[in-house]
Amino acid sequence: MKHIILAGPTASGKTELALSLAQTLSTQIISADSRQIYTDLTVGTAKPLGTWQDNKYLVNGTAYHLVDFLSPMQTFDVVSFCEKSRNLCAAQPDKPSIFAGGTGMYLHAFFIGIDPLPPADPDLRAEFAQFAEQNGREALHARLAQIDPVSAEQIPPQNIHRVIRALEICRLSGKPASQIKSGAFFRNEFPAEKALFVYLNWDKELLQQRITLRTQAMLDPMAEETRALLNKGFASDCPGLKSLGYPEVIQWINGKLMREETLEKIIIRTRQYAKRQRTWFNRYEKILRLDITRTQDFDVEKLTAQITKAYYAD
After folding, report:
1. What is the pLDDT of residues 114-164, one digit of tens each?
2. What is the per-residue pLDDT for 78?
3. DSSP readout, the chain?
4. 143 and 149 in contact (C-beta within 8 Å)?
5. Band of the pLDDT at 188, cuts 50, 70, 90?
6. What is the domain-level CATH number for residue 175?
7. Which residues form the domain of 163?
8. Which of 159-163, 171-175, 221-225 is predicted with the least confidence, judged by mean pLDDT?
9. What is the CATH number of the domain that holds 291?
């Protein structure tokens, strides 16, 4: 069974289009978003609003899997994503599943595969963490940039855990983490026999405007959500609260940032994240790119019809 991948940068309208497509094809959606997995984190992750019924998260009657199921205190990895996705696809073998999200590593691992990564080395991680504590995160990030500039471009210096993991992979495997994760040791193009790969290719300036407007609208509700989480006893550095925007909101709550500073920082970080996503998805050749150069180009009904036609024609 051929599946459908609906990918794109943050704020590109993936969820809305995926729901329309799922209703047209009477099928399920599997979220490929590493942040929407968390319960209690809804505003800042732009999680689709739904309800749990019969152990399924339903959004307008459509089963939307791998969202709203994990405590913010827990972690989730690409192996878990692949295992759960495999089971979900197997549960409906006669229908396509729609994979919607912007976490490129999840999609790449499931449809193409990645080299086995070396296991964690606590001593090595402690070494890198101590270096960052003594010299600063920027200095640790600079070390990564020297040996794996591609990973350094994709990982911001403040994401200390990903920086350490990339350095750990380099040290243990003798290969740049980006080379291993890119699937360079398998093949470099997306296998057409396994999925119709659709990418929402927004004009850069239009997407930046959407990011700004969305961040402006979500900031105050996001602050309320974050306060509620902290009041429930969740640590400010728990995995869920490391999601995009939440660390800045926590700084605002703690009086370390003003509201406008918080807004500006989140917008900048979100734009940087969107840039990394564009870079990631540009690697694929066999892909249906839906170019959105004007706001009116994002017509859900027309795009749904275009994708459906391509799916059955392929």
Report:
1. 766 777 888 888 889 999 999 999 999 999 999 999 999 989 998 898 999
2. 83
3. --EEEEE-STTS-HHHHHHHHHHHHT--EEE--SSTTBTT--TTTTPPP-EEETTEEEETTEEEESSS-B-TTS---HHHHHHHHHHHHHHSTTS--EEEES-HHHHHHHHT--PPPPPP-HHHHHHHHHHHHHH-HHHHHHHHHHH-HHHHHHS-TT-HHHHHHHHHHHHHHSS-HHHHHTTTTT-SS--TTTEEEEEEEE-HHHHHHHHHHHHHHHHHHHHHHHHHHHHTT--TTSGGGGSTTHHHHHHHHTTSS-HHHHHHHHHHHHHHHHHHHHHHHTT-SS-EEEEE-SGGG--HHHHHHHHHHHHHH-
4. no
5. very low
6. 1.10.20.140
7. 122-181
8. 171-175
9. 3.40.50.300
Residues 128 and 107 both lie in one domain: no
How does residue 32 score in pLDDT terms, banded at 50, 70 and 90?
very high
Instruction: Mark whether 78 and 220 lie in a shared domain.
Output: yes
> Model confidence over 256-268: pLDDT tens digits?
999 999 999 999 9
Q: What CA–CA distances, in Å, run from 149 to 69, 152, 168, 171?
A: 35, 5, 15, 15
Distance separating alpha carbons of residues 172 and 9, to the nearest angstrom: 31
Dist CA 278 CA 11 (whole Å) = 12
Phi/psi region, residue 255 (left: phi>0; alpha: psi -120 to 50; beta: rest), is: left
Identity of the residue numbered 275:
K
What is the distance between the alpha carbons of residues 99 and 303, in angstroms, rounded to a whole number?
A: 16
For residues 21 and 301, give the distance between their C-alpha atoms in angstroms, rounded to a whole number: 9
Asked whether residue 20 falls in the same domain as residue 86, the answer is: yes
